Amino acid sequence: MGASLPPKEANLFKLIVKSYESKQYKKGLKAADTILKKFPDHGETLSMKGLTLNCMDRKSEAYELVRLGLKNDLKSHVCWHVYGLLYRSDREYREAIKCYRNALRIDPDNIEILRDLSLLQFNEPCLGIKSDFLRKSKGAPPKDLEESIEMLKLKNAQNGSDDSMDGLGSIDAGGGKRRSTLMSCTFTQGHFSHYCFTSTIANAQMRDLTGFVETRQQLLSLKPNHRMNWIGFAVAHHLNSDGSKAVEILEAYEGTLDDDYPPDNERCEHGEMLLYKISLLEECGSLERAIEELHKKESKIVDKLSYKEQEVSLLVKLGRLEEGAELYKALLSINPDNYRYYEGLQKCVGLPAENGLSSSDIDQLDALYKSLGHLYTWSSAVKRIPLDFLQGEKFLVAAENYIRPLLTKGVPSLFSDLSPLYDHPGKQSSTLALIQADILEKLILELEHSLRISGGYPGRAEKEPPSTLMWTLFFLAQHYDRRGQYDVALGKIDEAIEHTPTVIDLYSVKSRILKHAGDLAAAATLADEARCMDLADRYINSECVKRMLQADQVALADKTAVLFTKDGDQHNNLHDMQCMWYELASGESYFRQGDLGRALKKFLEVEKHYADITEDQFDFHSYCLRKMTLRAYVAMLKFQDRLHAHAYFHEAAAGAIRCYIKLIDSPSKSMVEEEEEMSKLPPSQRKKMRQKQKKAEARAKKEAEVRNEESSASSVSRLGKRHVKPVDPDPNGEKLLQVEDPLLEATKYLKLLQKHSPDSLETHLLSFEVNMRKKKILLALQAVKQLLRLNAENPDSHRCLVYHLYYAIILLTSVFVFDISCGLILIRFFHKVGTMTAPVTDTEKLVWSVLEAERPFISQLHEKNLTEANKNFFEKHKGSLMHRAAVAEMLSVLEPNKKPEAIKLIEDSTNNPAPINGALGPVKEWKLKDCIAVHKLLGVVLDDPDAALRWKGHCAQYFPCSTYFEGERSSVIRNSVNSQIAKKPENGDSSHPEGGKIVDFVSSNGKLEALKDLTI
């Protein structure tokens, strides 16, 4: 141990620890080398030197030294602790836990080791490891609770409350000092109460709630004069679903305070604790007691807004709606733009928004909001909310009163504000028989006409500023874009640009319209034009990057994105900022282009962000208990439990699974296979191929050197110090593709989706795809049953379209893809099973018996063969293009000789008008992406190039701006450089291959010169 060294060397050892904590690593190494000259086999010094080297990114040396130190001193808790820290830094949590437990066998009361162990246990899912040091109590209050209370009163009277948390922090595995010192870990004996404290964090992190309660109980018994122990014990019971016991503990703690009141410097913390206690009473159903307690403690609660919100919540639950309504009005006087207050007020008057409203209910709500509008004339919410429930003429009047001032002011977000009204096409007025979007269209057209004729609004003599007409055209362009009338939308936005060509928002909206119309190259050009109008606008820059990635112009997008990053390693900077939308869009673009390595790398980077977010919660366990932010703390724990249900994680995990599926369907060639193919070529072609490979390698090497030089030159700080980051050993994700079993990797992410997104259709579609490839028949059946659970009776066309949007890309690569409904997946599943050989082994017979037992319970197949089920599905959905395409595909699978009939099913589809009576004509039902998917189905799956060509010409008339269908109004490329941009990838949108010459066409002012000649 360090203490066994002579005094001089012992002081040097302390210096190593101090240098490690202060991140003075060179100084620590020098001290370690001095000790090792005299004592080369001193285990703890070797371990500390290794830990220091680990912080200097010399990991191989670090592990070697730490293992050598442990070998020389197996009975040193310091050596085991350092070994655990090393594993912790590499996120090898299970190995780190083993090391910490070995250290605790030597020094069971060491607080720092226990703290580090607790943090890892919190991060790791429950490992089934029980602490040998925990007493096996059943979560009951300590027997000496009254004695503890008296002791705390005595301590408070003598010394004041002891709320210090010094010495109870954690050691940063990267070498930082958070709230403690490694010195205390090495040279002081902790107390058992310290162990209890750190164990509570462990149990909370593992969600081992029973152990959490036990540990908190022990900690309170050992140190009852510590406020945090009382609060932690209460929180433990709350998390363990025993809110009533938590309330008892908090009240017992209140009884220990002098005059039931804390010191002045703790008023905020005490008020938070009281609000937490009242929320517990509400959660337990003790509503009368909760509101009584709230009124009793009003003077002690500092946060008056939270007090009022808690009070009104209790009043509503108690049915005291009149009092609740008055209190909601008081809250509205504080913040009249809070939508939650309006929702609560509606509940109090008996007209909740979630219930269907009769005409009399609508009249009552209209009167209510008119009265509120007189009180809060400056509030936008009081004018906007009635648009969600008013109909007919009342809706028209309210919409006009709301829209006119905003058009005059020139509010660009007006359409975004009103866009939720377009999500309810079935909501009609009883008198005008028009939906809200139609009313809005007619209203804005009337305003436009009046502004053109008289320069003012209808019925008003005052003239409007010229910009009002421009913003009216701006709104109309977005309106027609939303309804799929892209020609009209482009006409309106072009007129607005001609009116005022200096407004950036006009170009951004035109870019969005072109994207929806199918011309992604032109959309990227417009977005770049908008960006160049204000090079300091980060939002516009991000919009431009998004358009470029959608057009598969990844090189240009990278050049544009890094304009707003720090100097140095700019792409790492984007990763450090957790810019997940960029990584996801890049991954999708790489996936469309077939670059699975880079796509997978981007998706896994997003997954790493969520691992970092999980780790970031470590510091809050003790902090929140100390600062008494208990309501926020519990909310944070609940948020962490559903963290992986976030949309970005779902998208990243699904993208990674699709990459692995594509990898298993189209495995990359090995070096040996490439050499064999090369040897079969004639000598002249072989020589050309070799030269091309050498040039490509030289170009890649040169680009890497240039990037490294730029990074190195810009990474020198003003103090002259160079901040060097480790070079990415796999920038293109090639190593990620070299997995032995891609389906095994896909299964890891699939399990996360099944756990955290069980109600997502895509989760079970991916499960079906993976398990069919793994030949896990019962697991595939389980996925089918989940799909039937989610959407069995009446799969609507909209949800089917959404499903197809996820899967159109991998249509070209998988036999078991493009099933746009649960029923068709079922058909494909049982068709696959039906073509298998007869069962031979006991396992096969068991699987077969399960399938036969399940089949009668599936209504889609009840007393029908697969062909009949397919016909039945067609009869149900013959009006939907995507359903017809799916039926055609199933027909070709079930009866290959009927492929011409399957193709005819698709070609007989009619593009019917959508049930929207627009003022400028009907909107067609077919969507661009659906038509692209059908074209790929005809050309690839059904393998009929002539039918695909006919379909392409047919769709070119419906989508004249589409570059995929080569519509007559799509962008025209004028030179050979720009022709690279127009190359169609898998998704049919324009792209640019990574590493092309276009990367160099960026002038000093940020303008993308390569796009300047693109005709739109």
TrEMBL record:
User: Which organism does this sequence originate in?
Assistant: Salix brachista
Domain of life per record:
Eukaryota
This one is known as: Uncharacterized protein
GO CC term (a single one): cytoplasm
Tell me which UniProt keywords the record has, alphabetically. Answer: Membrane, Repeat, TPR repeat, Transmembrane, Transmembrane helix
Where is region (Disordered) located?
Answer: 673-732
Annotated SMART domains: TPR
Basic and acidic residues bias (residue ranges): 694-710
Give the transmembrane region(s): 805-827
Q: Cite the repeat ranges for TPR.
A: 77-110
Pfam name, any one? NatA_aux_su
Q: What PANTHER family does the database record attribute to this sequence? A: N(ALPHA)-ACETYLTRANSFERASE 15_16, ISOFORM A (PTHR22767:SF2), N-TERMINAL ACETYLTRANSFERASE-RELATED (PTHR22767)
